[in-house]
Amino acid sequence: MPEPANKNPTAIYPCLPKSSIAGLPRAKQRKQQLTSPPISTGCKPDDWNLCRGVLDERLESISVNNKSSSSGRRQDATAIITSGPIWSAVWYLTWPSAISTFIMTFYNIVNRIFLGHVPAAEASLAASGIGGNALNFQMALLFGLSAGTSALVSRSIGENRLKDAVQAARQSIILSVLAAILTGIPLALCAKYLVMAIGAAGDVVALATSYTAIISWASIPLFVNMIATAILRSQGDVRSPLYSVAAVIVVNVLLDWLLIFGIDGLIQPMGIRGAAIATGVSRVVGMTLTLWFVRRSKLGEALSHWRLDLRWLVRIFNIGWPASAQNLVMTLGSAGYLRILGMLPSGQATAAQAAYTVALALEALAFQPGIAYSMAAPPMVGQNLGAGKPQRAIKSAWVAAGQAAAIMGLIASLFLIIPQYLAKPFSSDVALVPIIVAYLRINSFSEPFLALNMVLRGALQGAGNTFVPFILTSFSLLFVRLPLEWLLAIHLKMGASGAWWSMSITACLGGLLMAAWFKFGNWRETKV
What residues contact 258, with CB distance under 8 A and at least 6 apart? Predict the structure, then answer.
């Protein structure tokens, strides 16, 4: 018998206890107890069955409402992104990513501090910087896959095509595993030749080779973790990646401390090799957590029915290859930058490379907010374009870029005011400190322009427009930065300071070029 509208069922059926309909958990307990009418109720069996029917319907209604409420919560992120105040939407997407990036920066700083206090600290710092650049060749491909994932998933969600979003996520994960295998094994086996090509020499070669090879064997966890993170962020879930990053960094820092320095009688000090092992283990932890979060999300079905679909792979590739090429150019530019530093007189080369490694970790204090805003930009632009709101997509990107530029500029002011206090904890070698200080002061002026470059590039990736950013990046890095570095540092004999000026000038140029394309280009017409 159906429940009459706008009536209290306990008023109609007095033998039905009020607590039975108070809530789902309580009702379930009551239903389990009521297998027959208690003697105290005085209910007839027929009346009791009617009461039981009302209770069953009430339980089903509560269950459906709970499911609807859960679904509504999952839709909240899309509603925030595509409607309401833009500043609030940008901040909603940015603050968890900002915390994540600051946590990662903290880890990088701690890692550099640890390596700065081991025997052969200068060589270890230089080796970690060169090894990181070697690993960036692999990261270039990964960033391309991530760009394709973000564009397709966010656009599909904005257009309310959930099945397409699931398929894009699924194919991206499959492709990430294949890409990790195809790049990780050669990188591990050829690590020595790669680090030497970048500029490693002397004692740095063996350390950089070991560091690069060890980390390369953990390529699959890295690739899957990053693509799963892109899937979560593309649907507006920015908190789950934060939880994952926090857990990963805790594991990584603890293992760094244990393996780099060792424990008397228990663990032998492993130096930079210990740092590499810690990184590999933490990657496995990150992959496990992010996949668990994806499984619990509205795109959880992406982790089932793993079968390649060439049509989707082509779509991901068409968006991703320019982004991969762009990041490959950035990696080549960074490797070339280190290579030119290695052309300095032998007494200056290793010191400049070590100072560069430390200075980048410090500079991350400024550009990590830019990374956070660049992570917020793809779902903001992609979902709004998918929802048919291009003007909101454009305004969201400019708001994010403006906020990032203001924050990065404020942090960079510390590089002018107290650079020596920032540099001293990183090395016991007093000769490195002035070189690090010079880097921080010279590059402090370019941080707001770097913010424009990073955030607007992320916005263009969300739109699926990756080719023109690739061209602009290639021009500023390969055809301006490297020749200018050689001219100032080597030909004009300005040393490391000349190299620092070449980086600062071209960072400003890159930001202006990206802003001009975003303002005047036809990227809004990109089809994915």
Answer: 267, 274, 278
Task: List the beta bridge partners of residue 267.
Answer: 263
Cα-to-chain-centroid distance, residue 455:
13
Q: Of 462, 393, 528, 373, which Cα lies nearest the Cα of 154?
A: 462
Q: The tokens of 258 are what?
A: 């244990």
Q: Are 326 and 467 in contact (CB under 8 A)?
A: no
Angle, nearest 10°, between helix axes 162-189 and 219-234?
Answer: 160
The Cα 409–Cα 481 span in angstroms is: 22
313 contacts 321 by C-beta, under 8 angstroms: no
SS3 readout for 410-421: HHHHHHHHCHHH
User: pLDDT tens across 138-178, in order?
Assistant: 888 888 899 999 999 999 998 889 999 999 999 999 999 99
Question: What whole-number distance in Å separates Cα of residue 116 and Cα of residue 103?
Answer: 20
Distance CA 393, CA 387 (A): 10
- Structure tokens given for 119: 């025997």
- Taking the C-alpha atoms of residue 340 and residue 296, their distance in angstroms, rounded to an integer, is 48
- CA-based torsion, 105, 107, 110, 115: positive or negative: negative
Task: Name the more confident of 73 and 515.
Answer: 515
Residue 489 in tokens? 């540092």
CB contact at 8 A, 316 and 174: no
CA distance 415 to 421: 10
Give me the count of residues in the chain: 528
pLDDT tens sequence across 472-499: 999 999 999 999 999 999 999 999 999 9
Residue whose token pair is 């739109």: 463
Contact criterion met (CB below 8 Å) for 247 and 289: yes
The three-state secondary structure class of 2 is coil
Expressed in percent and rounded to 5, the helix, strand and coil fractions of the chain are 85, 0, 15
Which neighbouring-strand residues pair with 263? 267
Question: What span, in angstroms and rounded, lies between the C-alpha atoms of 383 and 377?
Answer: 10
**Residue 411 buriedness (CB in 10 A; 0-12 / 13-18 / 19+):** middle
Instruction: Please compute, for residue 383, the number of CA atoms within 13 A of its CA located in the half-sphere on the CB side.
Output: 27
Mention every residue, 6+ apart, whose C-beta is less than 8 A from residue 343: 349, 486, 489, 490
Helix, strand or coil, per DSSP, at residue 263: strand
Q: Which two tokens stand for residue 447?
A: 């941080």
Number of C-beta neighbours around residue 24 at 10 A: 15
The DSSP call for residue 267 is: B
